[in-house]
Design a protein that fits this description.
By secondary structure, this protein is α/β, with parallel strands linked by helices. It folds into two domains: 19-219, 4-Layer Sandwich (Metallo-beta-lactamase, Chain A); 227-282, no CATH class. It is built from seven helices and twelve strands. The protein has helices at residues 61-71, 91-95, 111-115, 191-202, 220-243, 250-257, 266-282; strands at 19-22, 25-29, 42-46, 50-54, 75-80, 102-105, 132-133, 139-141, 146-151, 160-164, 169-173, 208-211. The strands form two sheets. Strands 1-2-3-4-5-6-7 form a seven-stranded mixed sheet, covered by helices on one side. It has a five-stranded mixed sheet with strand order 8-9-10-11-12, with no helix packed on it. Strand 4 (50-54), helix 1 and strand 5 (75-80) form a beta-alpha-beta unit. Helix 4 packs antiparallel against helix 5 and helix 5 (220-243) packs across helix 7. The two termini are 23 Å apart. The relative contact order is 0.13.
């Protein structure tokens, strides 16, 4: 591919240490590294005394204990969740043992799809249901901090980013990361929504992104522009496969399009191709005689 994404992958940290990374912002990283989480899930803290927590992370007692230990005599007043994948929201249940703070999010798993009566994927944290449902543009205020809610569906239909207004710092969850692009996996993942959510960020004033995985992003606009260009180039690759080379099935497209990707990641890559094909069919640039699926033929 010709598009060069300005990846940021290196990060100095210690598991279990709540570290200050910016004024009024701290982070502790869970020890759950993987090809999908990079070093692990970063749980953020905003504020100094009465604080907000963003993404408590996986069902990991040691991670939650490290967070509580690092906070000392600070009190948690708000718990924000970007979305309901298993490395982001299950930690809320463990955190509730230490605090009476209520949870905030766009909605339970698949909530964006449920609003439009569409199918919802089977995976995800089905047990999480926020105490407070948030809307795009809503402002939540705490002790010395203010958060703006930015609904960014695509990776999941209930994905919400949060801007710490004073620092113009956007906590981007899995929507925009420095180390990797996001997986868009239908039916809850949706490429059209994702592209619109990326373009939404171009109209904002965020100075820095803090993803849940990996290091911060300081060149916010150019990073998002590269992500958009990357997806547009991927669409062109798929169209070339189908229209020029006669490759009509996703299982045959993946090795060609993802030639530098390890084979064990091909299933995830196939889901991403499926999401792009759904988008192309919606735009009437591709067709199929069957329902859109991993096994269908496209022309």
């Amino acid at each position: 591919m010709n598009v060069k994404i300005p990846y940021r992958r290196e990060l100095e940290f210690e598991y279990g240490e709540l570290e200050r990374i910016a004024p009024k912002i701290r982070r502790v990283i869970a020890n759950n590294p993987s090809p999908f989480t990079h070093y692990g899930t970063g749980t953020y803290v905003i504020g100094e005394k009465n604080v907000a927590v963003i993404d408590p992370g996986p069902d990991d007692p040691e991670h939650i204990e490290a967070l509580i230990s690092g906070l000392g005599d600070n009190s948690i007043t708000h718990i924000f969740v970007t979305h309901t994948h298993m490395d982001h929201s299950p930690g809320c249940r463990l955190l509730k043992k230490y605090t009476n703070a209520e949870t905030y999010g766009f909605g339970p798993h698949g909530f964006g799809r449920q609003l439009s009566n569409e199918e919802v994927e089977e995976g995800g944290d089905k047990d999480f249901n926020p105490d407070h449902l948030l809307e795009h543009g809503q402002i939540v205020e705490g002790d010395g901090w203010k958060v703006e809610c930015v609904h960014t569906p695509g990776h999941t239909s209930n994905h919400m980013c949060y801007q710490y207004v004073e620092g113009r710092a956007l906590f981007t969850g899995d929507h925009v990361m420095g180390w990797s692009t996001s997986i868009i996996s239908p039916p809850d993942g949706d490429m059209s929504s994702y592209m619109n959510s990326l373009k939404l960020l171009l109209d904002r004033n965020d100075e820095i992104y803090w993803p849940t995985h990996g290091p911060c992003i300081t060149d916010t606009q150019s990073h998002v522009e590269a992500f958009i260009a990357h997806r547009e180039e991927r669409e062109k690759q798929i169209l070339r496969c189908v229209k020029t080379e006669g490759i009509r099935r996703i299982e045959e497209m993946v090795p060609k399009i993802y030639s530098d990707t390890p084979e064990f990641l091909y299933p995830a890559a196939a889901r991403s191709v499926l999401a792009a094909i759904e988008y192309l069919v919606d735009k009437k640039e591709l067709s199929t005689a069957d329902s859109i699926s991993l096994d269908a033929e496209y022309f």
